[in-house]
Structure prediction request, 188 residues.
Amino acid sequence: MNMIFKWDAIPALTLATLIAIVITGKANHYKDFVKFLNSTISTAISDIAGLIMFLMALIMFSGAAQLDAVRFKPLFEMILPHNNLILAVALGILAPLALFRGPLHVWGAGAATAAVLSGTGLFNDAFLLPLLYVPSILAVSTDITQSWNVWGLDYMKIESKEFLKLGVPIMWVVSIVNEVLVYYFFGR
Prediction:
């Protein structure tokens, strides 16, 4: 529905869910359908409650960080390099700090880092966004807390320690190269 008829994702997913319920025989009787739907929703909500709370707290934390960013500006002006190339290479070197949703992972604690850096106005957002995405890509590719990496490790029967030892160094070098490319395309 999404690809052929250009439907939005939610209506397409809703239709797919209803079709799956009908095909699996869970919609033969109205009461059974309602019971199945309610129990599925209840289970799903309880399974992701921690994630929802984390995301709500992250949004509030990022919002507060952005509001207070002006207060941090003098500190950041003293600490951060004023040369975009040096900043790009430094973030490439520090890219492993994005692992485990750390302070450089924009879909983790790095959301606050991005909010503060953006809020200070020291850097152009068109440069800052890709600059901070690069460490996040390192984490998405090699972090053992990412569900697809866990699935891949299990599927390939590889230990997480081995995956980290091989993946992080390679992605670290790739991150440094990508940060230089970010400087070249967005920071000059």
